[in-house]
From TrEMBL:
GO CC terms in record: cytoplasm
InterPro entries: Leu-rich_rpt (IPR001611), LRR_dom_sf (IPR032675)
Organism field: Buceros rhinoceros silvestris
PANTHER family linked: LEUCINE-RICH REPEAT-CONTAINING PROTEIN 51 (PTHR15454:SF19), NISCHARIN RELATED (PTHR15454)
Keywords for the protein's UniProt record, in alphabetical order: Leucine-rich repeat, Repeat
Region of interest: Disordered: 31-59
Protein name: Leucine-rich repeat-containing protein 43
Length: 327
């Protein structure tokens, strides 16, 4: 589950061990008998100003943060960590009480769990009450229940999973979502239920549906046209992208779109395809495949056979072959 992968990752960060957390190296700074009015510094604060003098046997915040930032230090972050991980480590030095126990859920705004074999998006995510960005790419998620997603989400990335439908995701979608990444999954049409409309995603700005199995361009466009805030769209890698007029039809159908398949839409291109939306007959649901055979191995070459002499009574032997292609 996502929660299990998260706690496994947190354990790798050693947020409670030197130089992080509470210990003999910073005990006096967090003594319970000190004034409760002491301010809690953020990452941008000057930790050196917290105390006039560092007690004997303890380390200043500057001295504790330094080994975390030095990549040659034995306390440096392990490979594969993110800037968010560095943020947590430094917070564990400056204000370790904030990250104690369940308090960590109130701090995180971004959660990135990539390539960890996650199969389930569990309800434990609801504890992240401030979460705005959730990246779960390159996992094994086949279905995602929107009831388990924090309502504060603005970015949801599910690229390279095994998602086959949008029904569960659209049951209670996060109302503030601005980016939805579903590239490299197993989504396909038809889309009669209208899961890609403004009814479910009223604030969506960016949508990635690349490398799925969408085939009905007209039906897809009819739904995407309701997304009034949509500016970035990725559809490359779908069968419908093989239609010759694919890009022009989308450019003319979605006048507010700024970027299609990572290519910016300029005024010249929009003028070039103007009026194409009124010609749906150019969208054909058929394709022609031309196969050119360069070489066949394992059969006799007719040109190598000796030609029979004129007037020869030898029987003529012919060969025929049955060849199949699998796409």
């Amino acid at each position: 589950s996502v929660s299990a992968a998260f706690w496994n990752h947190v354990r790798r960060l050693d947020l409670q061990d030197f130089p992080c957390g509470l210990g003999s190296w910073n005990k006096s700074r967090f003594d319970a008998h000190r004034s409760p009015c002491r301010s809690q510094p953020g990452l941008g604060a000057d930790p050196a100003g917290q105390e006039e003098a560092v007690p004997l046997g303890e380390e200043s915040p500057d001295a504790l943060v330094e080994p975390l930032r030095d990549w040659h230090s034995p306390w440096a972050l392990p490979p594969g960590c993110t800037p968010q991980d560095q943020h947590l480590r430094e917070m564990a030095v400056l204000t370790p009480e904030i990250l104690h126990g369940s308090n960590i859920f109130q701090v995180l705004r971004s959660l990135r769990i990539v390539g960890k074999g996650v199969e389930e998006v569990d309800e434990g995510l609801l504890q992240f009450q401030q979460l705005e960005e959730l990246i779960l790419s390159v996992n094994q998620i086949s279905r995602i229940t929107s009831a388990h997603l924090p309502r504060t989400l603005k970015v949801l990335e599910l690229c390279c999973n095994a998602v086959v439908g949008l029904q569960d995701l659209c049951a209670q979608p996060p109302p503030e979502l601005q980016h939805l990444g579903l590239g490299y999954n197993r989504l396909c049409g038809p889309l009669q239920n209208g899961y890609l409309t403004a009814d479910f995603w009223p604030k969506l700005v960016s949508l990635d549906l690349s490398f799925n199995n969408f085939t009905d361009l007209l039906e897809l466009v009819s739904q995407l046209s309701s997304l009034q805030k949509l500016r970035i769209l990725l559809l490359q890698g779908n069968p419908l992208a093989l239609i010759p007029t694919y890009r022009g039809f989308l450019v003319d159908s979605l006048p507010k779109l700024s970027i299609l398949d990572d290519i910016r839409i300029g005024p010249d291109e929009r003028h070039q395809f103007h009026g194409l939306v009124r010609q749906p007959e150019v969208i054909r649901s058929e394709a022609r495949v031309v196969v050119s055979v360069g070489e066949i191995k394992g059969v006799s070459d007719p040109s190598a056979c000796q030609q029979l002499e004129v007037g020869s009574e030898a029987p003529v032997i012919t060969y025929s072959y049955y060849v199949t292609y699998e796409f």
